[in-house]
Every structure is written in C-alpha cells, then in structure tokens.
Amino acid sequence: MQNDVERRKKVHKSIENAFKGEVRYAAIKDILTPQSDCICGGPIQNGRNGKIGTLGIFGKLVEATQESNVMVALSSGHIISKNTVANVPSLGRVGECIWPEDSSQNVLDVSVIIIDQSQIENLLYRFNEEITVAEIKKEDLGYLPVFKYGATTGETHGHIGVVDSFKLYGDDIMTILPRADCPRKVFSEKGDSGAIVLTRLNRKFHAVGVVYGGDLKLPGFNNIRKETIAVFLRRALDRFSEAKRQTILLDKI
After folding, report:
1. If you placed Cys at 196, which of 56, 67, 170, 182 could pair as Cys (CB 3.0 to 4.6 Å)?
2. Mean of the pLDDT values across residues 61-80?
3. Domain range holding 137?
4. pTM of the model
C-alpha cells in the first residue's frame, strides 16, 4: 500500500512525463490567496453596522517597553471603533476593536483591533518586508511616490500632493493623486479606508499614512482631480499611545 510520499512522487513523475521542459512545484498556499483569510489590504467589516473598510497592517502591543504576544490589526477610525466586533467576510469574527472611542473625533485615528487567538494562523502578509513608521518632514513629502493595498482597488500607486492646504479637525492631512497608469484612474475608492500608505526611502519601507477617504468635495470648488485623503499614521499611533499607555510595534505588511 502506497503512502503519501510515494503517491506524490508518482503524481510528479506522471506530470513530468506529460510535459516538455522544466516542471516546478509550489505549495498551493504560496500561489493562491484564500478568501477566508485575514490579509493586509483585505476587507475588514464592522460587526455592528456592516461597514466595510481595509485591514491595513498587523502589529503587536507593547506595554512599558515589554513586547506582548497580543496581535492587533489597524484600520481607519471611522470604519470601526471601541467595543465593536471585527469581521472578515466569509470568515466571520476575527477580533474586537479597543480604539478609538465612538465619536466624531475618531476620523484622525486608527482603529486598533485585537486579533482573536484562534485567528492568528489565518493572518497573511503581502510581502516579507519590515515596515517603519517615521515622521517625514513636510518639505520632503511633496510629490513623494507612494502605494497602498486596498480592499476595493487592490495595489495602486500615486504621489503625495498638497499637505498643508487642508486641515481636518484642526490637524494636517495629506492628499494623494493616482499615478497616470492606475487602471481605475484613482488611488482609492470606497472600501479602501484603512489602507496603509507606504513609500520606500533609502531602501526601507515607511508607513506614512492611513487612507481616510477620497474625492474631497468643497463648497464652491469644482474638484476635477481624484484625490485620496489620508491622515498621518505616526500622529494617529501617538494619540493611541498617549491615551492607552501602550505602543504598537508594526509587523510586516
């Protein structure tokens, strides 16, 4: 009676005999992304009202410089707030949000969702690179090339436009314009809120912002450009740390 190893060898030999050239094998998990997994840039859903945004990035809670084993996910503050269950469509509950408070002020914050221990094995990443959060000077942000992974539009590329011409609740925000070759001609659309805005400087990946919304409408202003509005990630994480006396160590994305 053949065991699994012998059966696999027999299948491989049969495939190689049927095809000319080199045959390569890969684990199915390495080439397919199951829709039921938690993945950076995938959807995250508010369990109370059904609102869907993007799961931006994973990380770990750090208390008094002591790293914990508590895994968290970040999204946009207006998608999900404290004491709300977080779901992934077709998977169900993946955790519960601990920040921010449910108020209008949370538009400048990130959502911090504690991932259920039972879901840790379902976490998937886009690429194997460490992500740094740094406060890049305003003068260095203009026209900086950026990219993101969103639940609606997937991977898109663009550049940062105006930084200090708009304020939201008294704080600076950044606007992002899509690169000319973006298929949908936008950097983000509805459902991409919570996506992490990334750039590469000095051969390192930096997280500079979190997508809040897009297509800014101002009274008396004919907006012909498809801007994405993003808040500064460093400042949002600082607000969390000041309120909760905890910090977040970002994982790979």
Report:
1. 56
2. 88
3. 131-233
4. 0.80
